[in-house]
Specification:
CATH topology of chain B: Rossmann fold
Oligomer: heterodimer
CATH superfamily of the largest domain in chain A: Thiamin diphosphate (ThDP)-binding fold, Pyr/PP domains
Structural class of chain B: alpha/beta
Helix content of chain B: 40-55%
Order of helices and strands of chain A: EHEHEHEHHEHEHEEEEHEEHEHEHH
Structural class of chain A: alpha/beta
CATH class of chain B: Alpha Beta
Shape of chain B: globular
CATH class of the largest domain in chain A: Alpha Beta
Strand content of chain B: 5-15%
Strand order of the largest sheet of chain B: 2-1-3-4-8-7
Number of strands of chain B: 8
Distance between the termini of chain A: 49 Å
CATH topology of the largest domain in chain A: Rossmann fold
Number of domains of chain B: 1
Distance between the termini of chain B: 61 Å
Radius of gyration of chain B: 20 Å
Chain lengths: 325, 322
């Protein structure tokens, strides 16, 4: 069976949806030459009206996509840099995402905002290394963060077919992950459905995005000490609270491994909800970025500014050792 | 196109609609307040009078005149402003963000200047679908210092999209005079993107109509976008809250000078006085019904507060879990 990379899964999902539905088109900077490879082969196959090259005008083309969506199209905007999503935070959260409500349900705005290289970018500096998925969850924008090629295919397909705005975060550190797949098995994955990557009985580790793969390594490393369950929400909004509650009901203990900043990040939200609504037998922990920025230019500084496997292992041990509340 | 009396009627309707709405603000039937367009009626009536029913309007925060001139049901517009479930957006757009797809009013953005890019996207999608539609995008002089507006101009000019951009230069962005905000000229902004741009007397409805009709015809025939800068004036404050705070950023002499060129008076001079009296009476009778419909319409059920947030019916978690 073929090996599918995460990046190729994005290319395949987008191409399949453009083939299936003529209202779908992609726009972005350098999409004609497929700088990121997401649109590789598209210009020849779909032509320039459906692979729309745009100038450096993020607010302009994000509003443009809102208009095209109001007029019946399904735009997919490819962004090259995570922070560009914050340059167009108004256009996504205030224009596109509120429009259905403000129009009393008259018309939705089905735009997909595809960010295929989110997170730390070694050597590219502080302004290219952010991971702002929590901010979109905070604003109630549907937001997905798949960890594997199969999930990337399934969730990008779902995002494009969804009638609301959806932000897709593809972590840079996951783009080279490969998976042996049968193409026949690739299918849409519903929003708000988590996934158990490894079953365990002692502690639930909620891992997000590329950190799923690091959490699986830690779980393996600790296998003789503890039975660690690795649970991946896959979409941060809507969030599979019932799935998390099910896992925690079996383990009673919780650690969150999250590439967000610490203040008001998904880690904070997951801990707060678990404490309010679920039965934890011991205080939980989270491992996150600090607030602010990744330096992005000095490897030894960047390493300590991101959540690490060592921090996760330590947090797991601390939660397991806790005598309870 | 509307005849001389038709233009007068539309403007008279907008003027009295706004005055009745201000009464409803004072009476508490319209929550908080509105941005009245009194004084700017010729722009709405002349511009929308140049459109076909299938054409599209994007409005601004000062948009009631655009909606009425484009053919929205006035009772449902007023009900919208009053937060009633019979409103064009079930009360959820309000005075600020109304849209009515059945009449071709797609959006009214409150983030000044951001309609320009949305207009470009609608126009692009319509053109690619082979639909001969034109998009009219209204904004004020306050929008011309926004980058997002200029980004919209760039895309519309670059791809020669069927958009007519209409700047209602009413001289003030809230309290800020246009002279103290805008470097260069407003038309110069359009010209920089290769967009035919001109200043228009926004108080004479027939002048407005002629200018917009020419721009619409060019857009419809594939000739690309235009920018028309309407010189106009609002008699009232930026928002009705100014009735309470009594801001004084304009001289009375300036307001009086603009009222001496009142758009309704200019058009009334072109019609028979007896026709004018008959139209005025008919407008008043219709507005009595409009107000009655809006005020008598039911208010929404708080249990429905989270309806329409998502197309699939998903509801956010409530603010507390007990």
């Amino acid at each position: 069976m073929p090996k599918l990379s995460y990046l190729k899964a994005l290319n395949r999902a987008l191409g399949d949806e453009m083939t299936r539905d003529e209202s779908v088109f992609v726009l972005g900077e350098d999409v004609n030459f497929a700088l990121t490879n997401v649109t590789a082969g598209f210009l020849k196959k779909f032509g320039p009206d459906r692979v729309l090259e745009v100038p450096l005008t993020e607010q302009g083309f994000t509003n443009f996509a809102t208009g095209a969506a109001m007029a019946g199209r399904r735009p997919v905007i490819e962004f090259q840099i995570p922070f560009l999503l914050l340059l167009v935070f108004e256009q996504i959260t205030n224009q596109a995402n509120k429009f259905l409500m403000m129009s009393g349900g008259q018309r939705s705005v089905p735009v997909t905002y595809l960010m295929p290289a989110a997170g730390w970018r070694a050597g590219w500096g502080a302004q290219h290394s952010d991971q702002p998925y929590s901010m979109f969850a905070h604003m109630g924008v549907k937001t997905v963060l798949p960890a594997t090629p199969t999930d990337a295919y399934g969730l990008l397909t779902t995002a494009i077919r969804d009638d609301d705005p959806v932000v897709f975060f593809g972590p840079l550190a996951a783009l080279t992950v490969r998976e042996i797949v049968d193409y026949e098995d690739l299918r849409p994955i519903p929003l708000g459905s988590g996934r158990i990557h490894r079953s365990g009985t002692d502690v639930t580790v909620v891992a997000l995005g590329h950190l799923v793969h690091e959490a699986l390594q830690v779980a393996e490393d600790l296998a003789e000490e503890a039975s660690v369950e690795v649970w991946d929400p896959r979409s941060v909004y809507p969030f599979d609270w019932a799935g998390l509650a099910e896992s925690v009901s079996r383990t009673g203990r919780l650690v969150v491994f999250d590439d967000s900043n610490r203040s008001c990040g998904m880690g904070a939200e997951i801990l707060a909800t678990a404490v309010e609504e679920m039965h934890l037998t011991a205080p939980p922990k989270r491992v996150t970025r600090p607030d602010g920025a990744i330096v992005g230019a000095v490897p030894e500084l960047d390493a300590v500014l991101q959540p690490t496997k060592e921090q996760l292992a330590e947090a797991i041990r601390t939660v397991l050792k806790s005598p309870g509340w | 196109m509307p005849d001389a009396l038709g233009f007068y009627r539309t403007m008279r309707f907008i003027r009295r609609f706004e005055e009745r709405a201000i009464e409803l603000v004072r009476a508490g039937e319209i929550f908080s307040g509105i941005h009245p367009c009194i004084g700017q009626e010729a722009v709405a009536a002349g511009a929308c009078g140049a459109l076909d029913p299938d054409d599209i309007v994007l409005s601004s925060h000062r948009g009631h005149g655009h909606l009425l001139a484009k053919g929205c049901d006035p009772g449902r517009v007023l009900a919208e402003m009053a937060g009633r479930v019979t409103g064009i957006d079930k009360g959820r757009g309000g005075s600020f963000h109304p849209s009515d797809f059945s009449a071709g009013v797609y959006n009214s953005t409150g983030t000044v200047g951001h309609g320009a890019g949305i207009a470009a996207g609608i126009a692009w999608a319509a053109a690619k679908a082979g639909e001969p539609k034109v998009v009219l995008s209204f904004f004020g002089d306050g929008a011309v210092t926004q980058g997002a507006l200029l980004e919209g101009f760039n895309l519309a000019g670059l791809w020669q999209l069927p958009v007519v951009y209409i700047c209602e230069n009413n001289r003030y962005a809230t309290t800020l005079p246009v002279e103290t905000a805008v470097a260069g000229t407003i038309t110069g902004r359009g010209e920089a993107f290769g967009i035919p741009s001109s200043d228009v007397d926004g108080q004479d409805v027939e002048v407005v109509h002629a200018a917009v009709a020419e721009a619409v015809a060019r857009a419809r025939s594939g000739g690309g976008p235009s920018l028309l800068v309407m010189d106009t004036y609002r008699y009232h404050g930026h928002h009705t809250f100014e009735m309470l705070v009594r801001l004084r950023y304009r001289e009375q002499a300036e307001i009086d000078a603009w009222k001496a060129r009142d758009p309704l008076d200019i058009q009334a001079a072109r019609i028979d006085p007896a026709d004018r009296d008959r139209v005025d009476a008919a407008v008043e009778a219709e507005l009595d019904e409009v107000v009655r419909f809006a005020v008598d319409s039911p208010r929404p059920d708080p249990a429905d507060a989270m309806d329409h947030y998502y197309a699939d019916g998903f509801r956010p978690r409530p603010g507390v879990s007990l």
